[in-house]
Design brief:
The protein is α+β, with helices and mostly antiparallel strands and 183 residues long. It has one domain: 2,3-Dihydroxybiphenyl 1,2-Dioxygenase, domain 1, CATH 3.10.180.10. It has three helices and nine strands, in the order αββββαββαβββ. It has a four-stranded mixed sheet, with no helix packed on it. Strand 1 and strand 2 form a beta hairpin. The two termini are 35 Å apart. The N terminus is likely disordered.
């Protein structure tokens, strides 16, 4: 199956830093959280450009702090994500720690509302999880009876697989391509 995601990712040159991703009718940014782009300060009265106005850099968000969505059975769905993907459930108190993710690139890309990228037209979001070893993760999920469709093509930014949670929400798994450090 050819994923339309490739339109979005086809020009991503995965390098540890920031890269622009563009596809037909969408623009997103992939950024490594450990390395942020730097902008030189502008003189007072300078025009606004790339988030800088009058010598003051625009305040930016530092990452995604949570993913919140409705579910038919939130407790069961939370347990499914914990059991099969290792995502810790929301703690019951402020003293308990929340799920900590590893630093890495994150793509933020709104899609046309008529896009079939997520599959079911009634689904309005899809989450993409980074994984270290796509083959191992897919085998683990398949051993638990979860259907996983691995895209056989390798892309400049890595490999992908698709699955759905028990409520039919689309999930994408992404094993980022490690940059060649030779040379």
């Amino acid at each position: 199956m050819h994923f339309q995601r490739r339109q979005l990712f086809r020009i991503l040159s995965f390098a540890f830093g920031s890269s622009f991703i563009s596809g037909r009718n969408q623009l997103g940014i992939a950024a490594q959280t450990a390395i942020q782009p730097t902008n030189s300060p502008r003189s007072a009265g300078a025009t606004v450009g790339h988030g800088i106005a009058g010598g003051t850099e625009m305040e930016k968000v530092t990452g995604i702090g949570g993913l919140f969505f409705r579910a038919h059975d939130p407790k069961a769905l939370g347990r499914w994500y914990q059991q099969h993907l290792g995502i810790s459930l929301t703690p019951s108190s402020y003293e308990d720690s929340v799920w900590q993710q590893e630093a890495g690139p994150t793509v933020f890309a709104p899609f046309e509302e008529t896009s079939d990228y997520f599959g079911d037209a009634h689904k309005f979001w899809m989450v993409n999880f980074r994984v270290r070893n796509l083959a191992k993760m897919a085998a683990q999920l398949q051993a638990a009876g979860i259907a996983v469709k691995i895209d056989p093509q390798s892309y400049p930014n890595g490999q992908f697989a698709r699955l759905h949670d028990p409520e039919g929400n689309p999930i994408e798994l992404w094993q980022a391509k490690v940059p060649d450090t030779k040379g």
